[in-house]
Hints:
The structure holds four protein chains of four kinds. Chain A is an alpha/beta fold. Chain A folds into two domains: 1-75 and 150-205, 3-Layer(aba) Sandwich (Rossmann fold), CATH 3.40.50.300; 84-147, no CATH class. Chain A is built from six helices and nine strands; from the N terminus they run βββαββαβαααβαββ. In chain A, the strands form two sheets. A five-stranded parallel beta sheet of chain A has the order 6-7-8-3-9, with helices on both faces. In chain A, strands 2-1-4-5 form a four-stranded antiparallel beta sheet, with helices on one face. Chain A is globular, with a radius of gyration of 17 Å. Chain C is mainly alpha-helical. Chain C has one domain. Chain C is elongated. Chain D has one domain (24-244). By secondary structure, chain D is mainly α. Helices cover 80% and strands 0% of the residues of chain D. In chain D, helix 3 (59-86) crosses helix 6 (154-185), helix 4 (89-121) packs antiparallel against helix 7 and helix 5 runs antiparallel to helix 6.
Amino acid sequence: MLSVAGLHLWRGERHVLRGVSxxxxxxxxxxxxxxxxxxxxxxxRAIAGLLDPEEGQVQWRGASxxxxxxxxxxxxxxxxxxxxxxxxLTGRENxxxxxxxxxxxxxxxxxxxxxxxxxxxxxxxxxxxLSAGQRRRVALAGVLLSGALLWLLDEPxxxxxxxxxxxxxxxxxxxxxxxxxxxxxxxxPLTLAGGKLTQLELGxx
Amino acid sequence: MSEFFSMSGYGIYLWPAFALGIGVVVLNLVxxxxxxxxxxxxxxxxxxxxx
Amino acid sequence: xxxxALEVARLVAARDLRLAFRKPSQxxxxxxxxxxxxxxxxxxxxxxxxxxRDAAPGVLWVGALLSSLLALEFLFRDDAQDGTLEQFALSGxxxxxxxxxxxxxxxxxxGLPLALSAPIAAVGLGVPAGAMWSVVASLALGGxxxxxxxxxxxxxxxxxxxxxxxxxxxxxxLAVPILIYGADATHRAIVGMEIAPPMYLLGAITVxxxxxxxxxxxxxxxxxxx
Amino acid sequence: xxxxxxxxxxxxxxxxxxxxxxxTPWIGGAAAVxxxxxxxxxxxxxxxDYQQKDAFRxxxxxxxxxxxxxxxxxxxxxxxxxxxxxxxxxxxxxxAACAPxxxxxxxxxxxxxxxxGKPMWxxxxxxxxRLTAELVLLFLYLGYMGLRAGIEDPNKADKASAMxxxxxxxxxxxxxxxxxxxxxxxxxPTVMKMGKPSMDTAMLWPxxxxxxxFALYFAAVLLIRLRAELLRRERNASWVREVVT
Lengths: 205, 51, 226, 245
């Protein structure tokens, strides 16, 4: 379903991705590990199509992700370092917009997702008044709502308390249960109950 | 000969114009060659750092 | 399953309008800047109305251009910084279409109010009352073309550290035709001549802008987001 | 098959570097010869213009510089478009190489235009439509180089400036037309058409030769700068080693 072949990428002078290759099938979670600067974020952004690799290719459903970009993106949810939310809007307004441009979504769906990620009680406050952990929970609700097959998560557990991290683990398990694919960059390996788990070490010289 | 240089009185405009034109020609040649030599130097330095 | 294009445009517009009205000060600043610039000329050039009237097209148009450049810098920069612009690019919808909607809303919030408030400054520059509507029309149309071209440079300068001055340096040469036709339309309005010829040409540029600029702006934003 | 390999070879930096190194001296030499002969033809052999007398000889430096400034911008835009469409690093390197040379020749065109304008119109700067369009072209170059300098990552700088070059080249004719239109509105009486004086062959061949000389010169300088840009962009590839050491 998702295959990455021989990805080379430079960031300025540094040869960050040196021929990265892996593939993932539905129901599989790929954990990207490696120290800071090893290229975890760069790899995620390259898979998502935000970065053009100088060599190598990302394939989705057998076709090059670049040539079928819009279809690929409609099946993709990317959550970077910063939760993509507008500070002056409330959590609910943010989701109504960010999911609304992808597909029709009802207020009830939004409410359910916010409840699922424990963000419901602060969903109607302006996002800039929320803590980083609370913002992360609103963003996770967005990932849930997107209904995307492929999740690309960049250190999803940052700023989250203990049960927040457990929440991320269960959400990933549920996504794998739905025959989804998750590629997540993590600092400390995540323990998952079900689903196929593979690990990809980056930056090893 | 001086008649040639006077250029029927327009010499004071004509020669600076040609000087400017040829000056830009020479200047760009020099700048191109120096940019090439710095690029070669940097490439050599980069090769030493990570062969 | 995918949201239809009109719905996407409506959502983008609703979002930007709501964001703008949550922080109205940002809307007023370009207008205030325009008013101040317009009042500088009588102070520096001459209080004498007839000479001011000759300078009026230039003052109004250069003032309008500079204040719209001020507003343009934040067209994409805020969204790029908080990661929402990335989600635009990853939404599976046409980025060109969404940025076009965003640019139109930007014009509604900056270009149009500027054109509508221009008569206040124009009175101070000796512009006859009869010419006011033509002045507003020329500034409104020209403002739209400016926003379209400015969107490209706003996208291009996303990757640069300090976008502000660079944005103006990129946009001004491209805005020369708009300034020429716009200022001439305003001049003709002031002297009571027919404003159609320059307005048609300005309209032609705007149509060219509507068709090509959003494509270039989308490509520029994708490059800027790398 | 042949045309495809030609295009393919054009895309490989080591091959282009080798081509540039081999051909630069020849093209440069030819440019120098043409320039000297054209200068001699223009300054000495060509008869006086009945109106402008010897002042018209400034056409031999002004016209080629002005023509080159626009030709370089177009070349830069074409290279930029090729770089964007086929994602060819060599094309982006060529576009980067063009900009400074083009900007300098725009300055030369403006300077010589002003020096020619003084005796003809009585003032160094007159808002003649051609000079005005040339000035806007200079701002386009400065904007291009400003954008390229403003972005650190070389790859992103290449693509962003390429985009600007393409947008710019679409605007050049529009700017030219609008400046002509603006000039026709405010037809200032003093502006005597600085058109090319009707030239008989003795006057014409040096000018054409000078155009050829400037074009060859630009090709040579472009190839030199292209080699520099290729080295800057090449990621410690093997071919760099034997070229540099």
